[in-house]
């Protein structure tokens, strides 16, 4: 949709902040180009190395050089994905700061909102436009970046970025878009409450950070864990690529703390295990198949918080400017 196709407050908002929007669009495009270029430049290194006929045990100069080249390409791709993942973690907060500060807080602080309200634009319609413009851009741009990131991560040359790593988990799936929408709602609410640009931006950053940290802390409890029990003389059966949540020792059907018979806890570890009738160990974990259940539950929580923040924002607007 072009600017000319927009009407009313939405068009005014786009025109007022077109420079920021252009910069944001350019940065988003640069991120997509960077990911795509890195994927293309570093793709196929594993196949190229396999074509040399070398093995990791081969110490010839040719094979060592080929291995170093393959590993350096994989490291570069992983590094790009890591930093783009960090940028995706920060992105929702940046959007929220823009909404809290330049978009709402500054207008309320300077009083320029009165001009819009004096031209047949109701306060509710004014706030709706303030929310709709960044939300519309968010639901278009963020999923694109997230999808490209997820596509790059599937490359065998990405040197296995685990799905549960914080910079990866927050950059793929539905959570990035929901988090950005939450930041928009929190920014609007903060701007309406304090009516000061910098203060609203600070409160938005703190509120969004608190929500993100809390969700990160309880993430593993949002879905039932899987458990594997292993006899004492066997290797742990935890699948590769899974997120370990907890573990310990088993005494028949009873779970014991994992450090109950650690060296130093008792003089004789063997006697300690015999005294507690230890028969094996257990591990609670989330396999890779739990990614989407965890993401969808977390996304649902974030969207509920977003709806609450939006409702509170309109309530504050009505009470102060009814």
Please give the structural blueprint.
Blueprint: H1 8-16, H2 18-42, H3 45-51, H4 61-110, H5 113-117, H6 123-153, H7 166-169, H8 175-194, H9 197-218, E1 226-231, E2 243-251, E3 254-257, H10 269-275, E4 280-286, H11 291-321
Antiparallel strand pairs: 1-4, 2-3, 2-4
Helix pairs in contact: 1-6, 2-4, 2-6, 3-4, 4-6, 4-8, 4-9, 6-8, 8-9, 8-11
Largest sheet: 4 strands, antiparallel
Strand order of the largest sheet: 1-4-2-3
Number of helices: 11
Compute the average pLDDT. Answer: 84
H and E order: HHHHHHHHHEEEHEH
Q: How many domain units?
A: 2
Provide the gyration radius in Å.
26 Å
Q: Give the fraction of residues assigned to helices.
A: 55-70%
Alpha carbon gap, first and last residue: 33 Å
The beta-strand count equals 4
Global geometry: flat
What are the segments in which pLDDT stays under 50 over at least 5 consecutive residues? none
Q: Name the beta content range.
A: 5-15%
Q: Could you state the oligomeric state of the chains shown?
A: single chain
Structural class estimated from helices and strands: alpha+beta
